Every structure is written in C-alpha cells, then in structure tokens.
Amino acid sequence: MPQLEQISTFPSQIFWLVVIFAVLLVVMLGVALPRVQGILQERQERIDDDLAQAAALRDEAEGVLRAYEQAQADARAGARQLIREQQEAAAAEAAARHAALGERLAADTAAAEARIAEASREALAGIEAAAGEVAQAMTARLIGVDVDADEAADAARQAGG
Q1: Dist. CA 34–CA 41, nearest whole Å
Q2: Among the four residues 78, 80, 128, 135, which has the most C-beta atoms within 10 Å?
C-alpha cells in the first residue's frame, strides 16, 4: 500500500515540523506579537482618550445646559417683573385718566349747574316781569287804576314769596 510507504519519512517530517514551528514561534514572539500588542495598546489608549474627552464634553454640555436653564429662568423672572411693572403703570395711567375724567366731569357739571342757575334766574326774572305786567294789566282792568310797572313787579314779588 502506497499510504504506508510514507512511514519511513515520518520522523524526518516531524523533525522539520518542530523546527519550522519553533522558528515561526520565535518570529511571532519576537516580531508580530510586539506589533500586535503595540496596536492593541494604542487602540486602548485612543479609546481611553476618547472616553475622557467624551466625559469632559458631557460635563461641559451639562454646564452649558445649567447655564441655559438659569438664563431661561432669569428671563422668565425678568419677563414677569416687566409684566408686573407694565400692569402697575397701566393701572396708574388708568387711575390718572379716571381722575382727570372725574375732574373734567365735575367741572362740566359745575358749569352746567351754573348755566342752569343762570337760566333759572333769567326765567324767574322773566316770570317776575310777566307777573308784574299781568298784575298791572289786572289792576287796570279790575279796578281801573293805572299802576306803574315797578310797583306792579314789587307787588307780584311780595305775593309770590
């Protein structure tokens, strides 16, 4: 059998297998393994640096977020204060306008009352004059005596009040 004829070369094949394996092992341990370890160490350092940078950026972002929230809260408080001030100013202006309107209405009322009083005096004077004329005419008709206008007006005044 031809497969069994190789048994005579088997020990030499094993020898060269061990020699080549030893040489390759020395080459791998001396050259390739340090390179792989260097690459792995470099990757780990890069990962550690990236993680540290990410943590620093996260802390910075949290600080910026806190500053933004504080600025937003300050802006809200300022807006509330501004609204309150504007409401107070509007209320003060409304009160001032109300007071001015009240004063104007009081002045208009006083002027109207003065006009009414003047018209009333004029009407009363007209009524007294008319009453004097009526008294003068009635005296002349009823008793046939002519009374002068001043006396008739005095008599009408005395009779009226």
Answers
A1: 10
A2: 135
Query: In angstroms, rounded to a whole number, what is the distance separating the alpha carbons of residues 15 and 102?
Result: 124
Helix (H) or strand (E) holding 47: helix 33-142
Token look-up 């070369």 returns 9
CA distance 115 to 7: 149
**Surface-to-core class of residue 152, CB atoms within 10 Å of its CB (0-12 exposed, 13-18 middle, 19+ buried):** buried
- Encode pLDDT of 92-118 as tens digits: 999 999 999 999 999 999 999 999 999
- Over residues 115-141, the pLDDT tens digits come to 999 999 998 888 888 888 888 888 888
User: 152 with 132: CB under 8 angstroms?
Assistant: yes
pTM for this structure? 0.45
Query: Helices 149-160 and 33-142: crossing angle, nearest 10°?
Result: 120
3-state secondary structure of 146: coil
